[in-house]
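tool=predict chain=A
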Amino acid sequence: MDAMGHVNNIVYFQYLESARVGYFEGVGWNSRDTSPTRQGPVVVSQTFNYRRQLHYPADVEIGVACTEVRGRSFVLSYGVFRKGSDELIGDGSSVLVWLDYGAGHAIEIPPDVREHVSAT
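tool=predict ok
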């Protein structure tokens, strides 16, 4: 909460992170893989547009969808709504690259992952 009683701006990025984790779990991506050949998504850019004030405490619902798939990256778009309503509190997006953790660089999104994120 900030000095004006609003939900602090950084909390919105935590909302997006929680939605992103839920999204990945929903498409079957195993975020707990620690093998040497581990690959996965990494956020490289993120934006958020504040549309309405949200005072603490408040309950929200987050919508997330993949809105663009590229060669090595994809875009997730989000809407943050006041729980139980269609009141849009804010919206944003994240650009994620598919990373080969061992090599330390972005690689082409594997076909099975591409199929899952393209279907949502």
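The domain at 9-118 is CATH 3.10.129.10 (Thiol Ester Dehydrase; Chain A). Strands lie at 39-50, 60-69, 73-82, 88-100, 105-106.
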